[in-house]
Amino acid sequence: MTTPNSKNFCGGNFQDWLEVNLLEQCNAKCSWCIERNGYHPDFHASVEVIAEEAIKTGKTNIILLGGEPLLYKELKKLIQLLVKANRKVWITTNGFLLSPKFVFENLQGITGVNISIHDFDMSRNKEITKILIDENNLILAIASMQLFEINVRMNCNVIKNHIDSASKIVEYVRWVKTIGANKIRFAELKNEEGDFVDLAEILNHKYGLNDNPFLEGCNSDCVIEDIPVNFRQMCGLQTSRRVKPEDPEQETKEVLYYDGKIYNGWQTIKKENDMETNKLEKIVKSLTGGKLSDDEVENLVALFSEVIKTEVAKTPKEIVTRVVHESSGGCCY
After folding, report:
1. At a CB cut-off of 8 Å and minimum separation 6, what does 161 contact?
2. In which element (H, E) is residue 310 found?
3. φ, ψ for residue 65 (rounded to 5)?
4. What's the rounded Cα separation, in Å, for the pair 204 and 211?
5. What is the reported pTM?
6. 272 Cα distance to chain centroid
7. Angle at 259 between CA 256 and CA 260, to 5 degrees
8. Nearest CA-CA partner of 41 in 258, 327, 321
9. Which of 1, 210, 307, 311 has its CA 20 to 30 A from that of 251?
10. Facing residues of 322 across strands?
């Protein structure tokens, strides 16, 4: 069994944090969104139940996620209930709904806000998210949060043709200084090979960046031009660009969903035909005694899958169903 670095999410770090999937709706449309195949319960628990379940976990830090958490209609009340229970409340948002008025009316008492903006040019950020941020309004909102002593971190996924080089990293840092945020997280994309940018490669393995984040650590911290920066790398469980650990040992983190239930890790939806592909892979590897390369196995599985699809298309029976599966390791952005 391969043991992860103790500083990793799946290595047991950040266990005093509870992630809350507050709602499924989002006003952005990022192609690589990790929740595009996410589990979305039909039932929505009351804000009182969400707060009660979060508090019962005993976790100190409660981070509100989505979807877009600022769309949650009971956000102010939820924050008040959690803060009253001496919990530190954090929110990750795309920033579109932030304004001085929204901060004043809804966010007083929280500890921090993470704003996910993936290009310092707002028109180019719109190419990624399909929403246009008003930069002047963003600056005023950040200033308002600073007045209430709310820590502001910018989240930036490094994406090909956007923030994809050392010089672009520095430009983003300088932009963050102009808008008044406190710190930055740069993160690699998960399961997106075409747009994937290797942080270790573009930054020449500085700042603790490495080629095997599962073993050597997927989180590293530094300071660039007086701004605290965190780098988040994807390991071989999240991208084919890195070595995949054999028989990995992982610790999952609890996630509270908006149905009021605690789940062991983030949940994803997997269709039955995807499950059949995994079964086919095992069969092919077994029959060939492991003599074929991964590419050859993949080609055979693709061929067999096409044959199966053709046969299924001849019958009126619908065989594709939806099944809930646990995600790996509590690994998230």
Report:
1. 195
2. helix 294-313
3. -130, -175
4. 11
5. 0.83
6. 24
7. 50
8. 258
9. 210
10. 271
